[in-house]
Amino acid sequence: MNTEAAYPIGELGKKWTDGDKEIWFQQQQKKRSYFDEVVTKLDSLNEHFIIEQYGSLLYDAENYPLYALKSLNWLEDKPTILITGGVHGYETSGVQGAIRFLQTAAQPFQEAFNFVVLPCISPWGYETINRWNPLSIDPNRSFYENSPAQESLAVMQFMKTLGLEFMAHIDLHETTDSDNSEFRPALAARDAIEQKSWNIPDGFYLVGDSAKPQALFQKAIIASVEKITHIAPADNDDKLIGVPLAQVGVINYAARELGLCMGLTEAPYVTTTEVYPDSPSADDETCILAQVAVITGALNYLITL
């Protein structure tokens, strides 16, 4: 289905003007609280983690502090793991899954790994349940030099200050039915391009980096997650979201070329999760637990190397 004409903002066949983008922004409303649902939970983690503000976002007179958590018992000879959530603010289980891992599952791995965790990269998107930031920019297509997305730029600047080599980077995401009903039509309208709705996979899947797919690493994560929730089957063309299947539950993207958060570091082991919260076989808690299972499955694999 061509969704180019399915969005009420802009003129068909023409890219959005600044005025169109302002109309879109003015239509967005706060639906939940970043401070109540995210920041307050971080305060309880200071016994085992250093909580550091790495930046802030000022949008429409609202100031959003950006937080990272680092292992308190940091040792230079341990490999370091980067975990990111909420690059797309509307993808709730990515944010809450990162926090839940820190709350319930991180401690047994602290002897083996250092952790850097950015649980909610896009707090405005979290509050308004949006894929884009207020300037109608997708942060997860904006991890490149001189990024136009404040969210992505703040993360990249923070990474430079850390000066660390990471063993792995796990980026926590969701694929929702709203990708077809809202976000892809909006993208088609904004950029005056044709977008075809795809079948949203019913279940969990991973996106690896085509430059370093690490098939055994991805397979170990799938094995961990399938204990919690079902893995998305491929469609009739052996694809997920239009991309050929690399193995069960795994597709690969060119992370750096697409400006994805997954391509942020030189880590040899990287993955992006995709939980499906709209499945009739899942609920919010299952999705959060699936994100935790991703991280623990990855760490249990990495600890054996």
Written overview of the protein:
This protein is of the alpha/beta class and 305 residues long. It has one domain: Aminopeptidase (3-Layer(aba) Sandwich), CATH 3.40.630.10. Helices cover 31% and strands 18% of the residues. It contains 8 helices and 10 strands. The protein has helices spanning 18-26, 34-43, 92-104, 123-128, 150-162, 178-191, 215-225, 284-302, and strands spanning 49-59, 62-71, 80-85, 114-118, 168-172, 205-209, 239-240, 243-244, 250-253, 269-274. Helix 3 links the parallel strand 3 (80-85) and strand 4 (114-118). Helix 3 packs across helix 8 (284-302). The radius of gyration is 19 Å and the shape is globular. The model is unreliable at 1-5 (pLDDT under 50). Belongs to the peptidase M14 family. InterPro entries: AstE_AspA_cat, Peptidase_M14. It holds the Pfam family AstE_AspA_cat. Keywords: Hydrolase, Metal-binding, Zinc.
Brief rundown of the structure:
This is Peptidase. The chain is 31% helix and 18% strand.
Shape: globular
**Quick one: how many beta strands?**
10
Number of helices: 8
Which superfamily, in CATH terms, is the homologous superfamily?
Zn peptidases
Q: What would you call the structural class?
A: alpha/beta
Report the biggest beta sheet as strand number plus sense, adding barrel if it closes: 8 strands, mixed
CATH class value: Alpha Beta
- Helices and strands, in order, run as HHEEEHEHHEHEHEEEEH
Q: CATH topology, what is it called?
A: Aminopeptidase
